[in-house]
Amino acid sequence: MGGVRPPTRTRLAPEARRTQLLDLGVRLLATRSLEELSIDVLAEEAGISRGLLYHYFGGKQAFHEAVVRHAADDLIAQTAPPEGGEPLERLLASVTAYVDYVIANHAGYQSLVKAAASGNDVLREIYEDARSALTGRIFTEDPWGDLIPDTPVNRLIVRGWSAMVEELVLAWVADPADVPRDRLLELAAGSLPALVESAAGPL
Amino acid sequence: MGGVRPPTRTRLAPEARRTQLLDLGVRLLATRSLEELSIDVLAEEAGISRGLLYHYFGGKQAFHEAVVRHAADDLIAQTAPPEGGEPLERLLASVTAYVDYVIANHAGYQSLVKAAASGNDVLREIYEDARSALTGRIFTEDPWGDLIPDTPVNRLIVRGWSAMVEELVLAWVADPADVPRDRLLELAAGSLPALVESAAGPL
User: Is Nucleotide-binding among the key words of this record (chains A, B) (predicted)?
Assistant: First the structure.
């Protein structure tokens, strides 16, 4: 406080370093489950001491939470729909990014789903927040308003649809069964308007 | 061995008693999570000793597995589609039974989903087997053949759809948000033909 050193630099440096470590953690999580991502693994990959990592993250649980939160932010940023275009094209672009993310980060994503379901409250909250951000965007982004009116039934549909898309991708990664990726993308994106339309009309 | 007592009766009696205890376990699971369903709780409700329950089930883990397997068999039996009728009517009847089962057994069902996701291999296997039985029925039951041709894409759709229906019901139980049960049922059953149809046509 009141020192002569530029405060922004001294405060930013550890934060930037922490972000760098989180980026590395997220990359490692692509091919590892959460259980396999230990402080030891990160220390070795980052070439720094376990002690320093504990200094940055406090402990294994806090480290996992920070990495998963960082991964969730990544996912939300990467799946942002493009600015312009037709509603269905933007939905397809967003779903494509989601599907590609899950394919590329399969091990870590699968383990997050497990952790969220198994009763780790913090990880479940991160998972639920990410899912809410992804699905809520469908209603808050202006152009979707025309495609999907914001009603309780459509909120329920979008929530069910997001569970379906997650299951579709995880099942497809485990066993593609000759279904090409483009077909999977069509299923994932095309199913939402189909569901909304079928729910709006008579059974 | 070689005794004079009728062997069927002496062998059947403990089995019938075990089934009775499993029925009770399944009933208790309707309003309890698996963690809350202990040998102690069952012993108290059944009015018999813990020792006898250990004799029947071997231990807590084996007891939970036996109860969940019994519940899964129950679910599969209760959701069998009716013999006659139109394909869509039969699907609606089957889905209605599923939705009502999950509503009535919400706590136990939710905890099974958690246990299956969290890495308990036996419970996951029971869960996956039940899901396979429920979804596979859509293809093996003759009349559905006309509604949903058995293709890799449709197998994937049915799998995604079953995850969606599960999510729809669990989300609806947690917060019905003014959506009536009939609307939920229409969504759950009507969505499958809509998904298959939309996947068959151009995007």
Answer: no
